[in-house]
Amino acid sequence: MCDQVYCLGGVFVMQMGSAYEIYFGGPDRSAGYLRNVLARHIAAVPAGGAIDWVTYYFRDLELARALLQAHRRGVRVRVCLAGKPRVSDANDEVIAMLSGPESLGDGLRTVTMAGIPSPRKRAWKPQLHEKLYCFSHPQPVAFIGSFNPSGNQLEERTDIIREIGDQDQGHNMLIGLREPLLVEQLVQHAQQLHQKPPGLLYRFSANANRIIKGIDTTIHFLPSMRPHPVMQFLRQVGKGAHVRIAASHIRTKRAVDVMVELAKRGAMVEIIAEPTLRRVTPGVEQHLIAAGIRFKRSKNDDNFPMHLKFVLVEERNQNWSIFGSFNWTNPSFWLNHEIIAISNNPQVFGAFSDRWRILENNQAITPPTSDGFSLMAV
User: Fold this and answer.
1) What pTM does this model have?
2) Spatial contact of 59 and 48, defined as CB atoms under 8 Å apart
3) What share of the chain is helix, strand, coil (3-state, %, to 5)?
4) CB-side neighbour CA atoms (13 Å) of 199
5) What are the distances in angstroms from CA 204 to CA 214, 223, 330?
6) Strand pairing of 172-177 and 212-213?
7) pLDDT at residue 15, as a whole number
8) How many whole angstroms separate alpha carbon 300 and alpha carbon 6?
9) Conformational region of residue 266, where left means phi above 0, alpha means psi within -120 to 50, and beta covers everything else
10) What is the C-alpha separation between 252 and 235, in angstroms, rounded?
11) What is the pLDDT of residues 59-87, one digit of tens each?
12) Pair 258, 231: CB distance under 8 Å
């Protein structure tokens, strides 16, 4: 591909002949860095274009207004949103705005799924935990990753931020896929969720069990009847491999066992985890350290969350990046709707490796001098 320059929301951006746009938010970036990425992309879609979103938490009222403005100028806007996330009223204000007098109309779909009995006689409630943001212009792109637009610049609900963490300043990511096949299929996935909200039998559907295979990246969906793609991949990794895991949540024994088995097979395993003890318990930490795994919790002076979810694998001169919305928890493995990407693209691996070093060293890089928007296209 040739390098191109195009205008994105009034900012001229160079595209470096690539199938990826990679953005990391965090304490080393300006506040709202990733939500500004989404805002720029919304503004850049002209009349006749399309925006398709699937997300878990959505509280950013300015982004909601931007979507309404896009709708009014003739953009086909479809938003599929968790109706009752873990903090059950978190999305209510945005839902009210998008369904109000100047609403998206049938462009808004809220999804609330019934719970099922768990072994402890408590309801396990499936959640629409995907983060998928698709834009038709200026060039088609589908973003996946860990970022929810879950805060406001003038925040009134500090109780919610204390519970879910400040996603606008914590460690997060948006990975933009521009390969036409991947974009087309992810847009189709978003539209299918919008047209027919998933039920408890969704895992048996063709949409849930398909795998999208691109040039160097494969997309998987949960829940499905297939083996968990990350667990299946790691079970094939052997002696001499180097595995690095950035995890916001590690709670299920099944995941811990796979990590411990990796170390027992002779792989070098490193983990950087979220500092919150509820999301990664002390018992999990002790079990992993006892197995010889190098374990570290992400730290920063302002206690912003480490919401990243990725795995880096180096084995036999091959490098793999695994990323998406998934957590190492039972609900994520069995119930929640998730998107997982497995890629052997070397530039993607390099970008994640660079971010790992920032997490590992707690080093800061100079924040951007603009309003928090820049492009790393690899």
Assistant:
1) 0.90
2) no
3) 30, 25, 45
4) 2
5) 23, 9, 19
6) unpaired
7) 44
8) 36
9) left
10) 16
11) 999 999 999 999 999 999 999 999 999 89
12) yes
